[in-house]
Amino acid sequence: MNVLFHCGGDDRGRMQRAVIEALPDCHVRVWPDVGSPELIDYAAVWQPPPDFFDGLTGLRAVFCLAAGVDALLQHPGLSASVPIVRLDDAGMARKMAEYVLYGVLHAQRRFGEMAEARRRADWSPDLGSAAADRFPVGILGAGTLASAVAERLALNGYPVTCWARSPRELPAGVACVSGDDGLRTLLPVSRALVCLLPLTEATHGILNRELFDALPAGAFLINAARGEHLIETDLLAALDQGRLSGALLDVFTTEPLPPTHPFWQRQALVLTPHVAAPSGARESAAQVARSLAQFQAGERPSGWVDRERGY
Ligand code: NDP
Ligand code: OXD
């Protein structure tokens, strides 16, 4: 079997070695060394270039080396009839749980305001902070990453509610709501709101003025999903109006975030360069190998993407 590999980003060397090692019975070709394109059976990719799929007429499935498939689904070269299998956890859930816990602690214990006071050499700002059990957290999403995040937050004493398309069984102590009504009940009580949704037509721009207005005044936003979930100008306005006290952002409409972007000037924003939850190279490669074997056996691997839903 011929597998065509391509990985964008800094981790490409480790990912390439891990995939080759995990597929000893396959001939793994590293793009652009495609050989005869019609002989490629599978692709394992992250950030494929525009001409990556050219001539791959025998392609049977694509294994996405990431959890989010929004960019892959929009790749003009990928035929809509080719199945996509994404990474399901692959080491990301634990890291995402750490990342979001950091953000929630930052908001609940008011570390951002303390950092500002520290810049003024102000020793004793009377900030006070709510106890964890009085600091409800809402999570948009109830999937692989959101469940792990919710479980970690609940263990730390936060009341946690996740929002999904349809009701879901979640870890002990975590509530789940769904649909428009569910969102309406979740927002007014969420002192921190975390976005862990896939980017789809339905979720594009969901973090907007209307949603911010429905949160309690001074709520804190954490977006670790995709930059396009957020209307950036609405966030700046909500900060100016005190609707939001701050945000932790890992993802942006334009990455890398341009040096002139207004976000850099806002002390209330904690910015990270899309590093919330990198997948582990070995875990990812092992999952690709497992998924490929399942696919060959006519089974549906766990990260199967439903193109209709968009995730
Ligand atoms: P999953 O597919 O496991 O979970 C998606 C969740 O979102 C599901 O609970 C789903 O609901 C819910 N959802 C989808 N659409 C809607 C909607 N319209 N209304 C309400 N709920 C909705 O995804 P993962 O948890 O694996 O990943 C989530 C995203 O995180 C990825 O798509 C990616 O963009 C981002 N990501 C970011 C990383 C980073 O480092 N910053 C790293 C990895 C991923 P239901 O359960 O009903 O289907
Ligand atoms: C992903 C990501 O989707 O790293 O896996 O953003």
What would you note in describing this structure?
The protein is α/β, with parallel strands linked by helices and 311 residues long. The chain has 9 helices and 12 strands. Strands 8-7-6-9-10-11-12 form a 7-stranded parallel sheet, sandwiched between helices. A 5-stranded parallel sheet has the order 2-1-3-4-5, covered by helices on one side. α1 runs parallel beside α9 (281-296) and α3 (92-108) packs across α5. The two termini are 27 Å apart. The model has no long low-confidence stretch (mean pLDDT 97). The chain binds NADPH dihydro-nicotinamide-adenine-dinucleotide phosphate (NDP) and oxalic acid. Oxalic acid binds next to loops. Residues 66-68, 279 line the site of oxalic acid.
Main β-sheet: number of strands, strand sense, barrel status?
7 strands, parallel
Instruction: Round the mean pLDDT to the nearest integer and report it.
Output: 97
Principal-axis shape: elongated
Number of helix segments?
A: 9
What is the H/E order?
Answer: EHEEEHEHHEHEEHEHEHEEH
- Tell me the β content: 15-25%
Low-confidence stretches: none
**Based on helices, strands and strand pairing, what is the structural class?**
alpha/beta
Task: Strand order, main sheet: write it out.
Answer: 8-7-6-9-10-11-12
Distance between the termini: 27 Å
Radius of gyration: 21 Å
Total number of beta strands = 12
What ions, cofactors and ligands are bound? NADPH dihydro-nicotinamide-adenine-dinucleotide phosphate, oxalic acid
